[in-house]
Write a structure and sequence with these properties.
The chain has 196 residues and is mainly alpha-helical. It has helices at residues 2-24, 29-33, 43-65, 87-106, 130-152, 175-181, 185-189, and strands spanning 116-121, 124-129. The protein has seven helices and two strands.
Length: 196
């Protein structure tokens, strides 16, 4: 099922966020907020952007699923632009958003992937398909996570490996992360998968 693929994407997205945020938590506050070269000027700004965009799109998806119109003030997610100053609080909020996205994707059936999502934009409310909006959201995450990863490489903290996607023989390499996240291979794949 294509819908199940989006669920695996949501789990992988949460896993990558977890690994990146755990590494970033080793930075001092000054290192976390230091000006760096990227699309956003710091690791802090980049990670806040990932989160606020998640809030915006996850709410949009959830409200459309419930038959509700967009929130009357969708821009509130960006006020302020960087809601979290420290990595610990940001990490907790990101993990909560990731759990919401997993729950949303896990509830999908293939027939719902072409359902309309009402997205509030500056030009007004526009319609998009669930599958297109989810693909966009995951791409947005990958794009900006990569930027944060590159900025982290310029610090004393070694960036974690993020270019993996649940290969069967590598289950042992993610066991610690899964324990921390409360994930299981069975929850992701709907079957028993073991590593070497």
């Amino acid at each position: 099922m294509l819908a199940h693929h989006f669920t695996t994407e949501a789990f992988q997205n949460a896993w990558a966020n977890h690994r990146l945020l755990r590494a970033c938590s080793e930075l001092t506050q000054d290192e976390f907020a230091a000006k760096r070269t990227s699309f956003f000027p710091s690791i802090k700004a980049t990670l806040n952007h990932i989160l606020t965009v998640d809030w915006y799109y996850i709410e949009t998806l959830e409200r459309s699923r419930a038959g509700l119109p967009p929130h009357e003030n969708p821009g509130r997610h960006y006020e302020p632009e960087e809601p979290f100053d420290d990595c610990a609080a940001l990490s907790q909020a990101q993990h909560e958003a990731d759990r919401r996205l997993i729950a949303y994707c896990a509830s999908l059936q293939d027939a719902q992937l072409d359902d309309a999502v009402l997205i509030p934009r500056r030009i007004g409310v526009v319609r998009e398909r669930v599958r297109r909006l989810l693909a966009h959201l995951f791409e947005h995450q990958v794009h900006h996570r990569g930027q944060a990863h590159a900025m982290l490489a310029g610090t004393r903290v070694k960036p974690p490996q993020l270019d993996e996607f649940f290969c069967t023989e590598e289950a042992h390499l993610r066991a610690r992360d899964f324990e921390e996240l409360g994930f299981t291979e069975a929850a992701i794949w709907g079957e028993r998968v073991t590593g070497p």
